[in-house]
Amino acid sequence: MTVIAPGMEIGILGGGQLGRMLALAAARLGLKAHIYCPEDESPAAQVAHAVTVADYDDRAMLDKFADAVALVTYEFENIPLATVKRLARRAPLWPGIDALGVAQDRLREKRFLQSIGIETAPFAAVDTQADMAAAVDVIGLPAVLKTRTLGYDGKGQFMLRDGAQCDEAWLAIGQAPAILEGFVGFEREVSVIVARAISGELACYDVAENEHRNHILDLSTVPAAIEKATADQAQTIAKTVATALNYVGVLAVEMFVCPGGQLIVNEIAPRVHNSGHWTIDACLVSQFEQHIRAICGWPLGAARRHSDARMRNLIGEEAEDWATLIGDRTAALHLYGKGAARPGRKMGHVTEIFPLGALSTGR
Amino acid sequence: MTVIAPGMEIGILGGGQLGRMLALAAARLGLKAHIYCPEDESPAAQVAHAVTVADYDDRAMLDKFADAVALVTYEFENIPLATVKRLARRAPLWPGIDALGVAQDRLREKRFLQSIGIETAPFAAVDTQADMAAAVDVIGLPAVLKTRTLGYDGKGQFMLRDGAQCDEAWLAIGQAPAILEGFVGFEREVSVIVARAISGELACYDVAENEHRNHILDLSTVPAAIEKATADQAQTIAKTVATALNYVGVLAVEMFVCPGGQLIVNEIAPRVHNSGHWTIDACLVSQFEQHIRAICGWPLGAARRHSDARMRNLIGEEAEDWATLIGDRTAALHLYGKGAARPGRKMGHVTEIFPLGALSTGR
Question: I want to staple A147 with a disulfide (CB 3.0 to 4.6 A). Which of A156, A180, A199, B183 is the partner?
Fold first, then answer.
């Protein structure tokens, strides 16, 4: 196996804010970031040592990119499998094709979780419109119809409250292979960010409690207001998932906390995750640095917090308020270098930190 | 005055590790960094949005650079005054020419400090070889002969223990205009990093205690093992210097602590400083971010620590031990992306953090 050393070039597929923060973390460790994405002037390109602007199906450019870098990783899971397969023939690629395949397909993901004994919402496959009625019979209502692939931030989803909505739902999600998920009556949403090294070593951050607005993450608070036993179990679940996938890198596991503390895994993201941005300011080693360490075959850092933290996303025009936000002396402002503040677009985030215990006492 | 907004380009003169860490801090705030330096493949260029590789006396390139950026700052004080003067005609330039002029010349620096009532070592100007004997008579021995300009990390200095060394000393420092400084019997070396905004607002970090090896900073520990009254006075001195210079940006003040707690200012650096690198890992807002905030006309962040800290420089081949260093789970490794590990070259640093109070209790 290639030993990755400082000075080498890390290839990152995707030019968004996650790629940008990965590139910044790589820089801190003396590594060079090489961004591959179709967009000119992407957030990640602004801080990278090298940039390839090309489509994800441009075979010649993919080959050139793979040959230029010491290894390849990615900042988003909706990357074509053919792209990563082609790259993996010429360069080490982490977290790897298997984990990506599982995370790209909600049905495979749920079946995988079930196979390793982890609870999910009840689900049924919906391959055609004709499957809808039977799925509703099995799962009950309310339920959510979700495309198997390419969904994020609530896109590709339809909430069914009535059996008469079957056709409407099928049309709304674009008549694509789907999964019908039973509604889970949860008390809170939490997530766990876990890193797994090539050696199998794990580093697991404390559980974050997440609040969404318009299906987009709004607020992450650490620690989550849950019992210690529940928090421990959430971390165990995340570690179990990472190990079962033979995962290398940072993985996020989103869960619902039900009354009584029962945990239901909602989805897994095979990458650094929005609900882990607080780690930049509240930990010595952030999720971004952990990912870089893991894929380089280096030992992981400690996932210990030095502070409690509350991270708030800046969505769309919220970032235009930067002049006020920068004046908050208890908070760190992070902006992603995006030009146009389109509605729903993640433009930045703000992290407040507090002495350890301050947030758990106050809740 | 130009209002600097996220998305704009910050010009930085100098491509070393300080420019690199300034560029990374600018990126976090959504700003683009444009590095100007004569070297190809500089540490700062690896993480910058734009790079101009040209000499500091290349007038056409300086003008083009000044026109491309929203403002200019610098990462080192030994930049030709003619360069900054030329740039300042076309773009806002901070911390400013006056502070640079004072800091570039040890004699002006000492006289300035004296003029605002701050104690320095006894000193005498040595403009020619003929001045040496008289200077030694006034200052006494031991004493250190230092070039007035261009010295750093012990370069351009000669320690005199005997009056017979006058000629040797004069030759050793290159027969340049110099200053003879009386020897100060100090107990420890400390430094204070202070930021001053365009509004005059000040943010002052806690006092760091510094240990040198071969005239190069080896270790900075925060807090310094000094009385609270001494620490308060050290911060007052730093704030007094920044205000008297009408300074904008981050300034470092190095001091000797003498028996009884008397403070003697050794030198000032009109820039982010090696003894402030611990702020990256032990504060929400680092010295680099403070500098960017200050020169952009933004409010300063809090200079509060969330942790005690110990920063160790990696000099020359010490950085080749990165594979061991990365395994220390209590420490953050920072590498500067430099190729050749020449003796005495600053290649990176390691910061350990500890809960607040841990280091002061232990000493």
Answer: A156
Distance from CA of B333 to the nearest CA of A (A): 6
Structure tokens at A337: 């270098």
| Shared domain check, B195 and B174 | no
Nearest to B92 by CA among B108, B73, B71, B118: B71
pLDDT(B1) > 80: no
The total of structural domains in chain A comes to: 3
**CB contact B357 to A (< 8 Å):** no
Alpha-helical segments (H) within B29-96: 59-68, 81-88
Same domain flag for A169 and A48: no
Residue that the structure tokens 């050749």 belong to = B340
B152 has a pLDDT exceeding 70: no
Identify the CATH number of the domain in which residue A13 sits: 3.40.50.20
Residue of chain B whose alpha carbon sits nearest to that of A352: B284
On whether any CB of chain B is under 8 Å from the CB of A46, the answer is: yes
Are the C-beta atoms of A9 and A73 separated by less than 8 Å?
Answer: no
* Cβ contacts of B289 within 8 Å, gap of 6 or more: B25, B28, B29, B301
Candidates B314, B237, B250; CA nearest to B99 is B250
ipTM of the complex: 0.95
Interface test with chain B among A28, A281, A305, by most B beta carbons within 10 Å: A28
Residue of B nearest to A203 (CA): B329
- Closest approach of B32 to chain A, Cα-based (Å): 7
Among B17, B199, B204, B333, most A C-beta atoms within 10 A, so best to mutate, is: B333
Query: B259-292 burial by CB neighbour count: b if 16+ within 10 A, else e?
Result: eeeebbbbbbbbbbbbbbbbbbbbbbbbbbbbbb
CATH of residue B166 = 3.30.1490.20
The CA distance from B223 to B281, in Å, is: 14
Token pair for B8: 């704009």
- Whether the per-residue pLDDT at B85 is higher than 60: the answer is yes
pLDDT digits (tens, 9 = 90+) for A117-145: 999 999 999 999 999 999 999 999 999 99
The alpha-carbon gap from B259 to the nearest alpha carbon of chain A, in Å, equals 35
Give first-to-last CA distance, chain B, whole Å.
Answer: 48
Rounded CA separation B89/A350 (Å)? 36
Contact B208, B225 (CB under 8 A): no
